Amino acid sequence: MRRSGLSTAVFAVAVGIVVASGASPGTAQPQPRAHVYLLRGLFNVFSLGMDSLTEELKRRGLDATVHGYGEWQTLAEQAAANYKAGKEAPIILIGHSLGADAVMEMAAYLGRKGVPVAMVVPFDGTKSFAASDNVGRVLNLTQRDYAYMRGGPGFHGTLANVDVSSDTSIDHINIDKSPRLHARVVAEVLAVVGNRKSTPAKNANSADARTARPATLPEQGGSQQSADNPAPPPHKPPAGRQPLQIPN
Known about the structure:
The protein is of the alpha/beta class. Helices cover 30% and strands 21% of the residues.
């Protein structure tokens, strides 16, 4: 009888602790939520397409926040802490101009912290970057061939350089506001979130994206997409299209 009474008392105490903590046996832990970080370019005034894209993503139930490009390191620290706490995944980074440069740097910084990045979308960055090995996909939307992205050491994700330079209605100032490009980005973000791609993936043929054979796919408006081609042959910008110089 004493043993039975002691067991009952211990069980009652255990139940009391569980109730007091607000949990119950078998309660599922909250699942991490996707977070899309969007970064504007110079002075936070030339990249308002990032704001409208943020709202488009929010309307689809996604956590999306827009920031200045200079905040990227602080945001990376926040994203890393949230990921390691099981609050945030997959992580998606989108930026325009200097914000496009910043999301490539932010992805690499997260990689050094052991945090995977599902997708990075630069809108017309000012220079080329090597994608870090923690990135699952790079969708580089550009109108300048000297700002093509390439795969860095260990990169096994997928990479597409989408050159829209033949579309005369798109320039550096408005590329981030293009409805056509917004529609594509939203579709790709939803695909990533739906597939829970929070870790880098190999190409469908398991080839390393740094050595994948170039392919061209037609884009709307007659422009061309260089798909899964992270290392295009070096060449100079055409006359009248010199590298964009923007002060830091």
